[in-house]
């Protein structure tokens, strides 16, 4: 009885190469088709901004393509596995390997190891490229596809409420006591009635509130504008309300999101939804490892029995059922209905057991 993890070096490299080539081909086809459709739907909004042209369309493609690759890579792994195993089965290669004493797990082992490499590459790609592209694209869309903000570490268009008063900031940068605000508009209200509008070029935190510099105060009742060198406002507003008012988990790297969650916890603010996104940054890429196991049913059984197509459909159904369960759990985690760890890892563990059970009951 052969109890080695791999059947042989030759079979391992042969199957892994076949699997990777087909996965790459499927991914390329998906990206081309989906990027074309997405660009057709968004090109009108991009070109609506005066001065935008072909360069901005290509810029959108460069920012959107990494998102499409990250989202549909597990689908490509699933389809690549189905095509690989169905081809091997159709050519009776699986029958030959099983006749040589190779188990179903050994047949799938090269695909699983190759998918582990895909998972590692996917995590690095998401952490270094996709997160930055998402943050940049979100900022560009907030500007209605106008001039792209240069500083990626600045929070823009921030609204904060201080009692009855409202504060709008064009840009907030830094962390903690080093937070700097630019383009401040302070709406001084009393009992829901606007009394004055205070504008300032910049602000810094000082004991007692925020010090506005180069202040212009417009009295609404009298219609008179007054110039002041400085003014202190918003004594109850902490820096995190400007810099962490709208944390985009998808637009931050794993380390950056973890730091943001730590800052929010220190400020006493809820972090359940962001923790779900944080853990999903790990479980999401690992879904590629599940695909060979879930689609493995397509590689076994007699091709001449006429059930190869049925087996391929079953494998595809298991794979898509995982994506449905994963998205549902992620949504429940974002709503706070599921704990973050459960929302991120429960579908992975569940379908790992399902895939292993199906493989053992049908082939081992």
UniProtKB/TrEMBL annotation:
It comes from the Bacteria. Its main location: membrane. Keywords: Cell membrane, Membrane, Transmembrane, Transmembrane helix. It is found in: Cell membrane. InterPro entries: LptG (IPR030923), LptG/LptF_permease (IPR005495). GO terms for biological process: lipopolysaccharide transport; transmembrane transport. GO terms for cellular component: ATP-binding cassette (ABC) transporter complex. It holds the Pfam family LptF_LptG. It is a multi-pass membrane protein. This is LPS export ABC transporter permease LptG. The chain crosses the membrane at residues 20-40, 68-87, 107-125, 308-325, 337-360.
